Amino acid sequence: MIEEEKDIYEAIDRSVLAGLRELQVKGDPDIIAEVGGLFIKHSPNKISAILQAAERGDAKGLQIAAHSLKSSSAYIGAMRLSALSKELEQMGRSDAMNDVKDKAKMLEAEYIRVVTSLKTEIELANESANSQ
């Protein structure tokens, strides 16, 4: 596996996805495709809100947007993204906005890795469903 592929693969904690798969009900749409699809659909607005709040120095806006992303990221197994969201949430809560723009850019880069990884997982789930 080349380093870039390994990096993308590690954006998602596979044990979290395995836990979600245990909730799969036979005959229902693939749970990873459903949950991952919802994350991909709704997270861009959260990322945008975080980046805008960081740019404006809006501590309260940063806290709220980062809190929302923290929870949804953890649910899909994006633990580094969740941790970065938590850091940004705490920065907003304590109004400690030094280096917030850099941290928000780190979060944005991690988000791209997570979405790439999730899309791969969804494709694999769809291929598996179609081959059955």
Helix-strand layout with pairing:
Layout: H1 3-9, H2 14-21, H3 31-56, H4 59-75, H5 79-93, H6 100-130
Helix pairs in contact: 3-4, 3-6, 4-5, 5-6
The CATH architecture assignment turns out to be: Up-down Bundle
Helical content class? over 70%
The CATH first-level class comes to: Mainly Alpha
The low-confidence runs, each spanning 5 or more residues with pLDDT under 50, are 1-6
Can you count the beta strands?
0
**Radius of gyration, Cα only, in angstroms?**
16 Å
Element pattern in H and E:
HHHHHH
Q: What is the CATH H-level superfamily?
A: HPT domain
Shape: elongated
| Domain unit count | 1
- The residue-averaged pLDDT reads 90
Separate helix tally: 6
Work out the strand percent. under 5%
SS class? mainly alpha
| Amino- and carboxy-terminal Cα gap | 27 Å
Q: What's the assembly state of these chains?
A: single chain
Give a short account of the largest sheet: none
CATH fold-level label: Four Helix Bundle (Hemerythrin (Met), subunit A)
The gist of it:
The chain has 6 helices and no strands.
What does this entry look like structurally?
The protein has 132 residues and is an all-alpha fold. It has a single domain, classed as Four Helix Bundle (Hemerythrin (Met), subunit A). Helices cover 79% and strands 0% of the residues. The chain contains 6 helices and no strands. The protein has helices at residues 3-9, 14-21, 31-56, 59-75, 79-93, 100-130. Helix 3 runs antiparallel to helix 4 (59-75), helix 4 (59-75) packs antiparallel against helix 5 and helix 5 (79-93) packs antiparallel against helix 6 (100-130). The longest helix is centred in the C-terminal third of the chain and has 31 residues, at 100-130. The protein is elongated.
